[in-house]
Amino acid sequence: MYFEMGADGQAKVFSILKVLNFLSLTLATMIVLAACSVQAPQSGATLYRENCQVCHGRTGAGDGPNVGDLPIAPANLRLLAEANGGVFPTEQVMIEIYGYRGKDLDALMPEFGPVLDSPQVIWTAADGREIPTPSALITLAQYLETLQN
Ligand code: HEC
C-alpha cells in the first residue's frame, strides 16, 4: 500500500519529532537535577522558600504572591501552634505536607512527597512512637516551628 504524505502531514511529523526531542532534553535535565539533589540536603529555609513561599508567603502568614489565583486562602502557618493549644503539631503538619490530605483538597495544596524524597530517619513522636520519616520533611517541619507567633 502506498501512502503519500502531503506538506501538511510532513509538518505534523516534524512537529511531533520536535516535541519528542524536547521531552528527551527535559528528561535528561530532570535526571541531572535529581542526581544533584541527592548529595546536598537543603536547609528548612531553602525547602520552604522553594516549595511553599509562593502561596504561604515569606513569613508563613498566608500572603504569598499566588494567593489571588487560589479559590481558598493558603493557611497562615504562623498560627499552627496557637491553634493546637500552644503546642506545634509536628506530626499533623508533616502528614499534611507529605500529601495524605483529603482528595478534594489535592488541587489546592500540591503533594510534596516526591519533592521531599530524602533518606528516611526515625522520628520519635511525643507519645514515643518511632516513625520512619524523610529527613527533609522533618527539617521543613522544624523550620515551620520557628515561624510560629
Ligand atoms: C499552590 C499553593 C500552595 C503551596 C505551594 C503550598 N501550600 Fe500549603 N496550603 C495551601 C492552601 C490553599 C491551604 C489551605 C487549604 C487546604 O487545606 O488545602 C494550605 C494548607 C497548608 C497546611 C495546613 C494548615 C492547617 O491549618 O492545618 C500546611 C501545614 C501547609 N499548607 C504547609 C505547606 C508547606 C510546608 C508547603 C511547602 C512544602 C506548602 N504548604 C505549599 C496552598 C499551598
UniProtKB/TrEMBL annotation:
Keyword set includes Transport: no
Record keywords, A-Z: Heme, Iron, Membrane, Metal-binding, Transmembrane, Transmembrane helix
Gene3D superfamilies: Cytochrome c-like domain
Entries under InterPro entries matching the protein: Cyt_c-like_dom (IPR009056), Cyt_c-like_dom_sf (IPR036909)
Membrane-traversing stretches: 20-40
Domain of life according to the entry: Bacteria
Cytochrome c domain span: 39-148
Protein name in UniProt: Cytochrome c
Species per Swiss-Prot/TrEMBL record: Falsiruegeria litorea
